[in-house]
Design brief:
The protein is built from nine helices and 27 strands. It is α+β, with helices and mostly antiparallel strands and about 425 residues long.
Length: about 425
């Protein structure tokens, strides 16, 4: 049986509804009271320690370098390439199969190799050399264009000809669970003649999916559409926190800057492209036809259900949005190809976010900017409060999973709490 087979079962107990069945096996970096940061694989409510497997011969025959999993990031492992990473995933799947006694029946070894998630702290899965944020949802781009420009001509003339993007700040990307402070910056109030310096009054989230690259390419060599996916190892959830008032004042003429670079949050588990293969989906029809270098064959989108939940301080959690990654107009292969068509080189661990993912109905919008019509239509919360934008103490939780034939491939939560501005 292959790792994606829906009939596969593990000897590790996997609770119903878990994001991490044997068909998933995402990679991450964790530490415990007794272990320094190392690589692991999620299975149910546990982490399988890849250092233990490697050092005790369970991964013999795969040609893995010594110490490859005893690292503070997955960069060196991912640099071995998608094929090699896939071989490790297949071997881990074999070890965890219900009928494989290699580790199952060695009680002492099993207790050392298999660690409860509750005893682990998850860390950034990769060191991110470079970060690019795209703008790939037609619904989101249309909603924003209608809010700030002409509703009849919401999309700019270039939008359907190329995947629009900008280069963001890699150093401020943090792992799920890391709090984010409300940023300060210049804000231009509607009736004021001059801007003021103050904490942002329009803090927002952006629901995104991000892919990570596993190849270094030389400067001057574009990546073709046919080879693009060989350069992509997998995906994480991504919350691109946004200070809308700072952003609105600064973004003309050069785009986002301080309204975005104060923090972005990623989920800790890298769900591989291989694990998501059964959930490929057709994307929206692209009209007009794209230029030849962006033309592709086959299903390049993914049917991944996404949701955003809000937990106000001391109050019950509420769902704000439900959408799906299949709505993205520009797919990940097109994003990477356009990014490199001018000869831009890419590096292992680079992170490429989709931009806000919004669906066709108000309940599927991926930001408060859209959900509240830029604060003009507040959301009413079960506890009696309302939200136009985020308040200090709010926790934003993003979740995502693909599901078919009784198999659920999930990402685990992407969580961040908004704290007051410093100073």
């Amino acid at each position: 049986m292959k790792a994606n087979d829906p009939k596969l079962k593990s000897w590790v107990d996997v609770p119903a509804g878990s994001d991490f069945p044997i068909q998933n096996l995402p990679f991450g970096i964790f530490k415990t009271k007794y272990l320094s940061p190392v690589a692991g694989v999620a299975i149910g409510d546990h982490i399988l320690d890849l250092v233990y497997l490697h050092e005790h011969g369970y991964l013999d025959g795969l040609g893995l370098p010594a110490g490859i999993f005893n690292q503070k990031s997955l960069n060196e492992f991912f640099a071995l390439g998608r094929k090699k990473v896939g071989e490790v995933r297949e071997r881990v799947s074999e070890i965890l199969r219900h009928d494989n006694e290699e580790l199952r029946d060695r009680v002492a070894a099993r207790e050392l190799a298999l660690i409860p998630l509750s005893e682990c702290q998850m860390l950034m899965p990769v060191t991110v050399p470079n970060y690019t944020d795209f703008y790939s949802s037609e619904e989101h781009a249309t909603n924003v264009g209608a809010l700030f420009r002409d509703p009849k001509n919401a999309l700019l003339p270039n939008w359907k000809h190329l995947p629009v993007g900008y280069h963001g700040r890699a150093s401020s990307i943090v792992v799920s669970g890391t709090p984010i402070h409300r940023p300060r910056g210049q804000v231009k109030l509607p009736d004021a003649e001059a801007p003021v310096f103050c904490p942002s009054r329009k803090m927002d989230f952006e629901l995104e999916l991000a892919f990570i690259t596993c190849v270094n390419t030389p400067l001057g060599r574009p990546v073709s559409i046919g080879e693009a996916e060989d350069h992509i190892i997998g995906f994480v959830l991504f919350n691109d926190w946004s200070a809308r008032d700072i952003q609105q004042w600064e973004y003309v003429p050069l785009g986002p800057f301080l309204g975005k670079n104060f923090g972005s949050t990623v989920s800790p588990w890298v769900v591989t492209l291989d694990a998501l293969a059964p959930f490929r989906a057709e994307g929206p029809k692209q009209i007009p036809h794209v230029l030849p270098y962006l033309a592709f064959e086959g299903a390049k989108n993914f049917d991944i259900q996404l949701e955003v939940l809000l937990e106000p301080a001391g109050e019950a959690m509420v769902t704000l949005s439900r959408t799906n990654a299949k709505y993205l107009y520009w797919n990940v292969a097109q994003q990477l190809v356009h990014h490199t068509v001018n000869g831009c080189n890419i590096q292992v661990g680079d992170l490429y976010a989709s931009g806000t993912i919004s669906g066709p109905s108000p309940g599927s919008y991926g930001s408060l900017l859209e959900l509240t019509f830029n604060g003009q239509k507040p959301l009413h919360l079960p506890g009696g409060g309302e939200r136009r934008f985020l308040e200090d103490g709010d926790t934003v939780i993003m979740k995502g999973h693909a599901e078919m034939d009784g198999v659920r491939i999930g990402f685990g939560p992407c969580t961040g709490k908004l704290l007051p501005a410093i100073g």
